[in-house]
Specification:
The structure holds two protein chains of two kinds. Chain A is mostly helical. Helix content of chain A is 82%, strand content 0%. In chain A, helix 2 packs parallel to helix 10, helix 4 runs antiparallel to helix 5 and helix 4 packs parallel to helix 6. Chain B is globular, with a radius of gyration of 17 Å. Classes of the chains: A mainly alpha, B mainly alpha.
């Protein structure tokens, strides 16, 4: 299956994300508050683009079943945006910040692929955001400190409902027609952008 | 209703008023009268259902395009709409099985023209696109409300489309249009609404003489 091959190839980058001080700091609660505030604002900007990319895929869906899947995935993205609104209130976050270079690189990449390429290519580019977060949540849940102020981040992505959404998107990666090499390249690009996104939040939150 | 409406009514009221007789043509006619009094032939209704299914399929896609320009504050409403349309498509599939409809048949010319227009309207600047998409839903609601309670053969369908939940959704869309056009209807927004209204009239007349 394409999606499992992509994910296996992404192993080293996924491990780099898991070991990144931003991510370990979420789990053990040591992440500086400004880093999390910065991250939530940038992630809201990202999710805005992610939802628009899903909507473009829905507009181009090759069949009814695929269209229905994108409608469900969009619903999931709306749930995440709601969560960010809750974070924003609790953590005093600006949900409409200027995007950083790392954020802009990622959103421009996703929207460009969704607008100009076949739906399968967009799914390959979007899968890391879902699969990586599901995997991080599942890896961190057993070891995360219960009193981490960021525990809700961990439990959200460790939730079986989020895993189900990731699997739905991967089923489209596996079944829709697309160019194999391009899809593998898009998946790698998105994984690199994920790591850069964490790194950027860490840098902004710990040096400013 | 708010107390701060301009003298000509809300923006949505002004948009409808400016269409004049075209609004009446888009929301009344032999098809709807026939659904109310029972004179609509079952075959004409079935052929229309097949085309309406295709229309809703296009509508979901059009709203996917609409989301490209929508402000984030409207995401919930628009995604909720897309999910409701997707649910509607499932409902159509069940009806198609019961009535032996062919949902994969050819598009009739009036439907093809409307479907192409929808995708074009959805790509316009947001205030025009949202006015057009509101007009689609408002005309549909008004049309079916006029067919209430529906003849026995069609009552199930009439009440499926003319209900309070759908009316609330149309009202919510109308408030977005009012917000997007704070200085009243623009010529481009009015043109978008006029285009929808003309297609609506042709769509109702697609499978019946009149």
């Amino acid at each position: 299956m394409r999606s499992s091959t992509h994910w296996a190839d992404a192993g080293p980058t996924a491990q780099d994300c898991l070991a990144h001080p931003f991510v370990t700091g979420l789990a053990d609660g040591t992440l500086p508050r400004p880093a999390f505030q910065h991250y939530v604002g940038q992630d809201a900007f990202f999710l805005d683009a992610f939802a628009r990319a899903y909507a473009l895929c829905l507009a181009k869906a090759p069949d009814r079943a695929t269209m229905g899947t994108f409608a469900e995935l969009l619903g999931g993205a709306m749930g995440e945006l709601d969560l960010h609104r809750a974070y924003a209130q609790r953590w005093d976050v600006d949900l409409s910040p200027e995007p950083t270079a790392a954020t802009r690189s990622y959103t421009d990449f996703l929207l460009q692929v969704a607008a100009l390429e076949p739906v399968a290519h967009a799914c390959a580019a979007m899968a890391p955001c879902m699969r990586l977060y599901a995997w991080l949540g599942q890896q961190l849940a057993p070891v995360a400190a219960e009193d981490s102020p960021y525990i809700e981040w961990v439990t959200t992505y460790a939730d079986p409902g989020f895993e189900a959404l990731a699997a739905q998107l991967e089923s489209l990666v596996d079944t829709l027609p697309g160019d194999e090499a391009t899809m593998a390249r898009h998946h790698r690009t998105a994984m690199d952008l994920e790591l850069a996104f964490f790194a950027s939040a860490w840098t902004h939150g710990t040096t400013s | 209703m708010t107390g701060a409406q301009p003298p000509g009514g809300s923006v949505t009221q002004q948009l409808i008023a400016a269409t004049g007789e075209a609004w009446t043509a888009a929301t009344t006619g032999p098809f709807l009268t026939g659904a109310r009094d029972g004179t609509l032939p079952a075959d004409a209704f079935d052929r229309w259902l097949e085309q309406d299914h295709r229309f809703v399929d296009t509508l979901v896609r059009a709203w996917g395009l609409l989301l490209q320009t929508a402000p984030r504050e409207d995401f919930g409403l628009l995604v909720g709409g897309m999910q409701a349309f997707d649910e509607e498509l499932r409902w159509f599939e069940g009806i198609a099985e019961q009535r032996g409809l062919d949902l994969a048949g050819p598009e009739l010319p009036a439907a093809a023209a409307y479907n192409a227009a929808l995708l074009d309207l959805a790509r316009r600047p947001y205030h025009e696109a949202i006015a057009a998409m509101w007009a689609v839903e408002a005309a549909y609601l008004t049309s079916w409300q006029g067919a209430l309670p529906g003849a026995p053969a069609y009552a199930e369908f009439v009440t499926h489309w003319a209900n309070d939940e759908f009316a609330a959704f149309v009202a919510q869309l109308g408030r977005v249009v009012d917000r997007e056009l704070p200085d009243g209807p623009t010529p481009a927004a009015q043109a978008a609404v006029d285009e929808v209204v003309a297609h609506e009239a042709a769509f109702w007349g697609m499978t019946v003489e009149g």
